[in-house]
Amino acid sequence: MNDTAKAGELTYVRIFNAPCELVFECLTTAEHLAKFWGPIGVSTPLETIKIDPKPGGVFDSVMVADDGSGSFSMHAVFVEVVPPHKLVWTEPDVEGGMTTSMTLTDVGGNRTEVVVHQTNVPEMYRTPEAQAGMQSSFDKFAAYVSSL
To answer: What is the pTM assigned to this prediction?
Structure first.
């Protein structure tokens, strides 16, 4: 979380206990994504994930609330893919065309720093609750990737 939220930008930084190649593989493979994609309290069924990690390729998913209260669809298009260090996608259906950039850096000791920078972030995604949900997504990913 950061202080640029008012400008429609968010930046998150996390370090995961896994090498870059594994982190990248988990972020670009449907079978892995189905194990962790989304905040705590939601699941993303494998059959709802379509991912083609190349410029112009799609990244679609449907997160389903574990309590059955609803679902959230994401439709994105990859803009840049540089294995195993960078993923950039745009969600054209989100007001303003939200763009997410993930930069993966080897920080030694089989650990990877992931910097997520989002632009054109709608106000509803900049609330403290939404940002806490994003952090819980990183928590789920950290538990998953460290178990591999």
So the answer is: 0.93
